[in-house]
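MODEL INPUT / OUTPUT PAIR
PAIR INDEX: 1
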Amino acid sequence: MGIRVEKIDLPGIGMRHDVQTASGQDVSIITYRNGQREVALYSETDPDEVIGQIVLTRAEATAIADILGISVLVGELDQVSERVQNLYTEEIVLSAASPFAGKLLGDTQARTLTGTSVVGIDRDGTVIPSPTPKTPIEAGDVLVAVGTREALEALARLLATGTI
C-alpha cells in the first residue's frame, strides 16, 4: 500500500499536507506563504488533539529536507535495485581534476555514453534532486547515479577522465 498525502489549500495562508504513517501516526505540515513550516503530530486516539508541534523557518525546513531527501532518495533507489536484477545505485564524487568540474551535467553526455541516469546531486549537504542537463556540476559534488555495474564504472571513468 502506498502512502497517501492529502493536500489542502489554505486560502491566504498556504498549503497543508496531511500524512498518515504506516504505524497510524497522523502528521500535518503547513507551508505558509512566507516559507515558514509548521509540523504537527496528532494523538492516535483523538485525531483532533495535537500532541506535538514544531515551527521551522524556511532555512530549517530546507536543511531537514536536504537531510531526508538524499537519504530517502538513496534508500528508495536501493529498494528498487533489490527488485530489479543488475540495477545499482552509486555515489560518485566529482574530483577537482575532472574535465567536467564547473560545467553542466549535460556536457558529460552521461546517459548517452554510459546508459546511466544521474538522479541526484549532493553539494555540500544541499540536495539537488532530479538534476537536468542544465544543472551545473562542481568539484566535490556527489552524483547519485543509477545503472548497471558496468555502466556505473563507465560513468566513474567518464567523470574522472572525460573518456570511457
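PAIR INDEX: 2
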Amino acid sequence: MTLRSLAADVPVQPDADEARRWLVEELAKPEYRTEPSLLQRFLDWLQGLFDGAPAIDLGGPLTAVLVVAVVLLVAGIAYWVAGPVRLSRRATSSVVVHDDDARTAAEMRAAADAAASRADWATATLERFRAVVRSLEERAVLDARPGRTAWEAAEAAGERVPDVADGLARGAHLFDDVAYGKAAVGPEADAFLRALDERTLATRPVLRTELATTATTPPGGEA
C-alpha cells in the first residue's frame, strides 16, 4: 500500500501530524528497508580482506565470478577431504575373494560355467571373478595372499596390468555387490567377467622392475 492509495481509502483530509504519522508507518515497512542483506554483508566482509579492492556490486559480473570461485573452492576441499576416506572405506568394506579357497583358476572357471548353465548368475559372477584373481596369482602378477579383498586385488593388479585396470575395478564392484546382495545380475555380468578373464590372460603384465624404474625416473629425464 502506498501513500496515495492509503489517502484514497480515508475519507478525511489528514492534518500535518496525521500525515507525518502515516509517512513514518509507511517507511517502516520491509520494502523500504535499506539494511544490507546477509549476502551483501558476507561480500563486504570478503572485500575487507583485500585492501583497496573496488566495491562489490551484487548485480555485477564480479559477484558471479566470486560465487563460482567459492563453490569450486568448497567442492575441492570436500573432495580432498572425502576422497581418501571414501577409498579407504571402500577397500575395508570389500569382500574377501578367496579366503582359504585352494582351487585353481581352471576349477573356478568350471564352477562358474556350471552355475551359468543353470542360470545361477550370482554364483557365476562370484566364481568368475575369483578365477580372474586366482589366475593373476598363478601368473605371479599378484602374490598369493589369503584374505585379500576384491577391491585390493583390483587395485594391486591394475598397476601390473593397466590395460585391464578399469575392467578389474568394475569386476570388483560387481563381486562386492553380488556378495552383499546389493545387485541382481544376469548373463551380461557373466559375459563381462568371461571377457575380462580372457583379456587379462592375453595381457602382458608390467614387470615389477619396470614399475620401480618408472617410479624413480623424473619426468622428461632418465633414471
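PAIR 2 NOTE: Residues 131 and 167 are 14 Å apart (CA to CA).
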